[in-house]
Amino acid sequence: MNKTFIQDAFGTAAKTYEQEAPVQKWTAHLLRQYVESLGLTDVSNILEIGCGTGFLTRELMEVFPEATWTVTDLSADMLETCCQNVAVEATFQQMDGEFPTLEGPFDLIVSSLAMQWFADLPAGLGRLSDLLSPKGHMVFTTLGSKSFQEWRRCLEALSLPVGLHDYPTLQQAQSFDLTGRAIGVSSRIKKQDYQNGLAFLKALKSIGAQSPKSGYRAMNTKELRKVMTYLDQREDCAMTYEILLGHIEGK
Ligand SMILES: C[S@@+](CC[C@H](N)C(=O)[O-])C[C@H]1O[C@@H](n2cnc3c(N)ncnc32)[C@H](O)[C@@H]1O
């Protein structure tokens, strides 16, 4: 993971993110509903990882307006945008959530669609779990292995390099080793329509999510044209997002 590249890409996208992020908005609402279903009554301090422009922050600030909030992101520009978008007072801190530099404990740690950018997800989750209070909960969403399968299949069919990251399968996520801590993970499939392959790539760029996996060789114009032609032959250009919803409890 090139964290500087990721940070710059999201920073540049801070102003365009919300117009091109329907799946992220849907996912933040899903996470809110899950947190509400837990019926948590004693949540006094909350840590958010990878707030972006604040889709999840706003959802959960409506649920816990009295809590003490620490809202973090890798990108200073995303943090600034989030700060402008929320109504509840909070501490905003630039931080790589994979290597938290904060002192816990927190009653609730939340994160929506940010942890797929961790280089080592189980290790990052383990470090974050250590910040939970004994009665605390960590609830997060991240991408699963079925995400963008249409794009992957197209590139493989054309024998072209695949820049997609290797997201965990549901089974892999359910068996993450968190040094004795139990993890519950479930999966939801969300399909998002795009006008064509180019619109999909442009949308990824508008939300800052275009950073490829390490070692990826970018396609040249001729290769990219082949991909677009291949995708144009399909009836639609829907892309699968597999949303993994995880829950870890304090101990
Ligand atoms: C797809 S956006 C999701 C933002 C927001 N949570 C939402 O639901 O819309 C991913 C966010 O995670 C941030 N991010 C990426 N890697 C991160 C890391 N290692 N630590 C903290 N934030 C990170 C990015 O800067 C970006 O703001």
Question: What labels describe this entry?
Answer:
23% strand, Rossmann fold, alpha/beta, 251 residues, globular, binds S-adenosylmethionine, 7 strands, 9 helices, 36% helix
Question: What can you tell me about this protein's structure?
Answer:
This protein has helices at residues 3-13, 22-37, 55-63, 76-85, 121-129, 149-157, 170-174, 197-206, 221-232; strands at residues 45-48, 68-73, 91-94, 106-112, 132-143, 183-194, 237-249. The relative contact order is 0.17. The longest helix is centred in the N-terminal third of the chain and has 16 residues, at 22-37. It has a seven-stranded mixed beta sheet with strand order 3-2-1-4-5-7-6, sandwiched between helices. It is an alpha/beta fold and 251 residues long. It starts with a helix and ends with a strand. It binds S-adenosylmethionine.
Brief summary:
With 251 residues, this protein is α/β, with parallel strands linked by helices.
Strand content bin: 15-25%
CATH-defined topology: Rossmann fold
Helical content band: 25-40%
Major sheet strand order: 3-2-1-4-5-7-6
Low-confidence residue ranges = none
Order of helices and strands: HHEHEHEEHEHHEHHE
User: In angstroms, what is the radius of gyration?
Assistant: 18 Å
Main sheet: strands, sense, barrel: 7 strands, mixed
- General form: globular
Overall number of domains: 1
Give the oligomeric state. Answer: single chain
How many DSSP E strands? 7
